[in-house]
Amino acid sequence: MNDVSQLSESGAVGAALFGQEPVRWKAAWMIEKRWGDWSAEQIDAGLAPVPYETISKAGNLLMYGGASCLWECLIGNGTGTGGQTLTYFNNGNSYIGVGDSNTAAAATQTDLQASTNKTRKAMDSTYPQHTDGTASGNAQIVFRSTFGSSDANFAWAEWGVFNGSSGGRMLNRKVESNGTKGSGSTWTFTVTLSLA
Fold this sequence. Notes:
The protein is mainly β. The protein has helices at residues 40-44, 64-74; strands at 25-35, 53-58, 61-62, 95-99, 118-122, 140-147, 158-162, 170-175, 185-195.
């Protein structure tokens, strides 16, 4: 009589360690449309009429060139690829640009895709706005430009934030139909960017 016995033991232990949380680039944006020609100062003082339409949406695409400019400025480098001077996104250099192209956004783009109907508008006097600190609300920056009655009178199908009136770096881009601006109206464009 043969007794055969077989014993096997197996086990598996797995552990996953996640020492970091994903960081998300977020954009919320708003366009306030008013009849008439109004300055940002008149709007802020309550002298302009209430908007006849307000569009509030979210989303955009961070451009590789814009991200690179942020990192270069973070480490104090003033020169980019090919000796290009990198510029801060401050009041004297920041612009919101709008155009009429609905070409899909790609992170490699360096400008709006409209061939002729595109306009960059300088920041309103107190923008961009950022409050320094260590709380969650300190992880955002707000850009705002006011397009008067003679500015950007065409279909608004794309937008982006720039650090120059021409050339420079495009920080982000969004393709979205926002209506056609005509003469005799003022549109205020506000973009809130945050990391969360």
